[in-house]
Target: DSBA-like thioredoxin domain-containing protein
Amino acid sequence: MQLVYVADPLCSWCYGFGPELTRLLERLPQAKVDLVMGGLRPYNTERMSQPFREMLASHWKHVGATSHLPFNEALIASDTFIYDTEPACRAVVVARGLFAANAFTYMKAVQTAFYRDARDVTQPEVLADIAAESGYGRDAFLELLQSDKAREATRGDFAVTQSMGIGGFPTLAVSYSKKLFLVASGFTKTDVLEERLIQIETLQAAPQAK
Model:
């Protein structure tokens, strides 16, 4: 089973959805996941306004209540923090290129660092530290992270997301016969994900059974 997961590490609903997807993969050990970075707020250069900061904090409380995951608002309370999601997306692209099977684990580590621990994952050195904690070579990871190749590959992911018409994250799809079928758009519980996958698989198998 080939799943396609379109997400942004700094999307709070993607953070909340992570444990649900992890449980699904534990139930379906044969499934593989292709990560595609969506680009929630890429290339942003402006500091957060107070109204935006308050809106974000309120949103995080909602996600936390739904997912039961911890959120730490210390970083977004800072006047100097710039909420640019491109560096974290680029780091996941680099992790995927180095060791695709570990990319989802790395992305979850970045999310935990940002949302729970308030580490500034817009900074290359922090992303490289997390990579080292996740089993990657820090220096090689940092060098790739800052390369034009990684920046171009990340823009490629954003372009793929746009070409699929996806504007919200998380989005999960499954591939059959080179076609993608939507499994979930937005936070979805594991049981529902599993039910939808069974429904899609049944529908795809039905014509062959005749």
Observations:
- The chain has a mean pLDDT of 95.
- The longest helix spans residues 190-209.
- DSSP finds eight helices and four strands in the chain.
- The first strand starts at residue 2 and ends at 7.
